[in-house]
Specification:
The protein is built from eleven helices and 14 strands. Helix 2 packs across helix 3, helix 3 crosses helix 4 and helix 10 runs antiparallel to helix 11. It is α+β, with helices and mostly antiparallel strands and 484 residues long. The protein has helices at residues 2-8, 22-41, 49-90, 95-146, 165-171, 203-210, 256-294, 300-331, 343-355, 376-392, 451-461, and strands at residues 150-155, 160-163, 190-192, 195-196, 214-222, 228-239, 245-254, 339-342, 361-366, 371-374, 399-407, 410-416, 465-470, 476-483. The strands form three sheets. A seven-stranded antiparallel sheet has the order 2-1-7-6-5-3-4, sandwiched between helices. Strands 9-11-12-14-13 form a five-stranded mixed sheet. A two-stranded antiparallel sheet has the order 8-10. A hairpin with a 4-residue loop joins strand 1 (150-155) and strand 2 (160-163). The protein binds adenosine-5'-diphosphate. Adenosine-5'-diphosphate binds next to helix 10 and helix 11.
């Protein structure tokens, strides 16, 4: 029944480009024959049928123009006109009646053909547009299916409208169309940052409710087959022209093997740095012993060589310590011993210690007597890192300024240099693990790109902030703030 209705209903056939020839031909012939039978057997004056015929057949023409396009309309029109001519012929019109009958038929014929052309033309235009959109959609769906990442699209209510095969292979469950992200939590049964996920943490729902884009949020999923997979989810809202959210799309990628590789690499670095620590400590002891043994001989050349060895060993020790700090940060084993101390005094101590070892002039400016409650040796580490960097990336004899200001219950420490500066789009990245600004001039500087990452983590653990202000070629000022 439904199919029959669909066959008859011209609106539900919009987008179909199968235009029937037989149906308008047969149906119009049936309509014309019925009209003729009515005029012969039911109506007293057979001529009177002409008026009804005009309206009935006009309706037939409109119907077939809508259902079968221009061709359907023309078939119905041709049959209609033929019927009018048949009426003129069969009723034996003569004289004035004949001429007025022919004029009316020609006039109606032109109007009917015009109507069939306009309605049929519009219908075909709409069909073309719909099928073009359909082709576009098909192309998009094919691309979505082929993507190496999982893609899920929902409507504004969180109901899945599109999903590709990759989703199933990542999550280990089939996500049926119509699945409700907000209600069923099959996909959400997992962990986010080690804790069980809640509905509000679903990136898709977040994008739907807030209109914001979520980038690379990591979840651990317990699949029904017992496998644990780590996925990275990004999602973004889809808005209409008025800016209203009409859908949301989510991209899910399986990052389990990438994470395993990272973990193995971290394990290796952790193990290697632990193994390196012991020989370096022994090396330093031997250097000290050697120095004591050489002292009485006063052999300056040898003492100088020992000095070099010691410097390089210290560098090595710093690198290994940085690696160890990073490992401890990742495993949450870096402990902070927070006690009150005078920050201004610490700065003075550091500057006194470092002055002889660098080729720039250091100036301190700021208030005296600032006490903070923090891990002194770790804050020391941050300031030294800032100063060493300032010296490393600045010309000789330039000036490095350490300034501190107190405002709004916090102290801000800044280390300013007159060095090479950092490009605006790299300023955030310098605090990332293993990040080093790469371009021909800076490549020559040794380092691992860990110092600022460790500093950032230290300051984060003290509920402070860390940032840089700089312009390429104009020097940099690295800041951190601590609550007082
Ligand atoms: P590194 O051991 O390479 O110095 P850091 O984490 O301390 O590692 O610094 C990361 C990167 O930030 C550096 O490689 C350098 O490119 C850039 N950088 C840090 N401090 C400065 C500075 N004062 N001036 C210019 N560039 C800097």
């Amino acid at each position: 029944m439904k199919r029959f209705w669909q066959y008859l209903n011209p609106i539900s056939r919009l987008g179909f480009k199968e235009y029937s020839l037989a149906f308008p031909l047969v149906a119009t012939t049936v309509a014309v024959t019925l009209l003729e039978l009515i005029s012969i057997y039911l109506v007293s004056t057979p001529e009177a049928v002409g008026v009804y015929a005009i309206f009935v057949l006009l309706a037939v023409i409109i119907y077939f123009s809508l259902r079968d396009g221009v061709r359907g309309g023309y078939i119905a029109t041709t049959l209609t006109i033929s019927y009018y001519l048949y009426i003129i012929y069969s009723r034996n019109y003569i004289g004035e009646r004949l001429s007025s009958g022919i004029t009316t038929t020609i006039f109606l014929g032109v109007i009917y053909f015009l109507i069939a052309s306009i309605i049929g033309g519009l219908k075909q235009l709409i069909d073309n547009l719909i099928s073009k959109e359909g082709d576009e959609k098909k192309r998009l769906l094919t691309i979505i299916q082929q993507l190496p990442v999982g893609v899920m699209i929902t409507d504004q209510y969180g109901q899945v409208t599109q999903v590709n095969h990759r989703i199933e292979s990542i999550l280990g469950v089939r996500v049926p169309l119509g699945y409700h992200i907000g209600k069923d939590d099959m996909i959400l049964s997992g962990e986010f940052s080690g804790k069980p996920t809640t509905l509000s943490q679903s990136p898709l729902l977040h994008s739907l409710t807030t209109g914001k884009v979520v980038v690379d949020r990591e979840f651990i999923i317990d699949r029904s087959d017992g496998r644990k997979v780590i996925i990275s989810v990004s999602s973004s809202p889809i808005t209409n022209r008025k800016g209203h959210i009409i859908a949301a799309a989510s991209i899910i990628s399986d990052i389990t093997s990438q994470k395993e590789l990272e973990a193995r690499k971290d394990d290796f670095v952790n193990m290697a740095s632990h193994e390196l620590k012991t020989p370096i400590t022994s090396l330093k002891l031997y250097i000290e012993t050697l120095r004591v043994q050489l002292k009485p001989t006063q052999d300056q050349k040898q003492l100088k060589t020992i000095g070099f060895i010691e410097n390089q060993t210290n560098r090595l020790q710093d690198l290994v310590n940085s690696l160890l700090d990073v490992s401890r940060l990742q495993t949450g084993k870096l402990v902070f011993q927070k006690d009150p101390f005078r920050l201004d005094k610490l700065v003075n101590e550091i500057v006194t210690g470092i002055r002889g070892t660098i080729k720039q002039k250091i100036v301190i400016s700021g208030r005296k007597n600032i006490t903070v409650k923090a891990d002194k040796s770790r804050i020391n580490q941050v300031i030294v890192n800032f100063l060493v960097n300032a010296s490393k990336y600045s010309p000789e004899n330039s000036q490095i300024t350490i300034k501190y200001v107190v405002s709004d219950g916090q102290v801000i420490v800044g280390v300013q240099d007159q060095g090479i500066g950092i490009d605006k789009n790299q300023q955030k990245k310098v605090f990332d693990r293993l990040y080093q600004v790469t371009d021909a001039e800076e490549k020559t500087f040794p380092g691992l790109g860990l110092g600022l990452f460790i500093s950032k983590e230290i300051i984060r653990h003290h509920r402070g902030k860390i940032w840089v202000e700089s312009d390429k070629g104009q020097g940099s000022t690295f800041y951190f703030s601590l609550p007082i």
